[in-house]
Amino acid sequence: xxxxxxxxxxxxxxxxxxxxxxxxxxxxxxxxxxxxxxxxxxxxxxxxxxxxxxxxxxxxxxxxxxxxxxxxxxxxxxxxxxxxxxxxxxxxxxxxxxxxxxxxxxxxxxxxxxxxxxxxxxxxxxxxxxxxxxxxxxxxxxxxxxxxxxxxxxxxxxxxxxxxxxxxxxxxxxxxxxxxxxxxxxxxxxxxxxxxxxxxxxxxxxxxxxxxxxxxxxxxxxxxxxxxxxxxxxxxxxxxxxxxxxxxxxxxxxxxxxxxxxxxxxxxxxxxxxxxx
Length: 277
Known about the structure:
Helices cover 39% and strands 23% of the residues.
């Protein structure tokens, strides 16, 4: 940067840096390009965090071809399919658990064995939920593991799981009722992640952030939601979608994945441009 060059090319500049040094370098780049407008910086990186922190215009290259070019927000609007909705449910209180147990059993010390599961689920209101108590279910595996280890599960543990599962089903039903296309991405205990896909612009509940926040906020207490967030599709998901479809010419719509596709021989890069005018 000595000599204030008009154009500056940087290739993966933050690779191997610790967080403090990386942030300092970002501040320097932002100062010379965005604030002081001394230089135009062309930056290549695989770090979406770095890209969003520095770039006013972004291009995605796949297989040596430039697939798109625009601001971060433009790319999210153009290639991001809908919104992400993350929710954390309220933990069942001891009073709620005890009340549910005593409603169906004589004692809170009741033990439920494997052979009693169908009858117990029927007693609690839905015999089909027996199918959730398997090792592959995101929450039912906890009950299945307790039964496998101890030969039984306590009524309290079962009731706590049942209450949490009921809350999740209520949230899912609420989203499906208000939006045309909802996809469950992941569940972990009392946390769940959803994808709300784009809807027609004339839909009453079109995917404006304000609409979604208003709907959820009004139903937050009823749905026992402790905290939640609504966000656009991330830049990394857009990048991964392009990279995984390098041989497809059609426009890319985002299907979120937990890890990027990394097929052999794929040549992919991320070209980001910081323009001072």
